[in-house]
Amino acid sequence: SDRALLFLGETGTGKEYIAQAIHQKSSKKNLPFIKLNCSSRPAHEINSFLFPSTKQVVGSNRNDLNTAQTISQVIYLDNVDTLNQTIQKKLFNSLNPAKTKEQNLLPSRLYISSSKNLNALVTKNLFNQNLLSIFNNSTISVPSLRENKTIIPVLIRNHLEKVSQKDGLPVPEVDSIALEALCEYHWPENIRELHS
Questions:
Q1: CA dist., res. 86 & res. 46, Å (int)
Q2: Between 56 and which of 35, 40, 52, 195 could a Cys-Cys bridge form, CB atoms 3.0 to 4.6 Å apart?
Q3: pTM over 0.90
Q4: What are 113-125's pLDDT values in tens digits?
Q5: SS3 string of 64-98?
Q6: In whole angstroms, what is the distance from residue 109 CA to residue 23 CA?
Q7: pLDDT exceeds cutoff 80 at 102
Q8: What 8-state DSSP symbol labels residue 142?
Q9: 92 and 85 in contact (C-beta within 8 Å)?
Q10: Alpha-carbon distance 117 to 103, whole Å?
């Protein structure tokens, strides 16, 4: 399926990595995977990535990521909760199957993510309820490391192997006492902290 997906989870849980893994297994794997951080990108740039005008598409340079290629890209919107209400509503209209006329200029596939409680933001009128409802059956909740401690040894081993391969060094062993301590650690920044 090429439907849009929503990833929810604390900061640093690897939401983007999961989206990239899904992308690499999808029929769209040959298309560019473009990450846009909604909390740092100006709203007009986010808008132009998602909804280039017909005039832009017809007259644009092939290398301009803000125009013609948008419809041949896979876009990952990070911190989608910071999108302004206008773009949230426009995104809902484009993803809504009942409004097909507004779908023709969306990216080939869309992933969005947030570390916030979007339901709580909806109750405060800070997030579009209709947009959230689009993802009722296409939301992936990513657990924190403290909720999924059994994968910590595997993550540590994979990370050490990756670093060792890059540096041309043998993979170091982690003794059982140190590994137990790492598994009991709270990991407030999750996988991002582990990799640091």
A1: 12
A2: 52
A3: no
A4: 999 999 999 999 9
A5: CCCCHHHHHCEEEEECHHHCCHHHHHHHHHHHCCC
A6: 9
A7: no
A8: P
A9: no
A10: 27
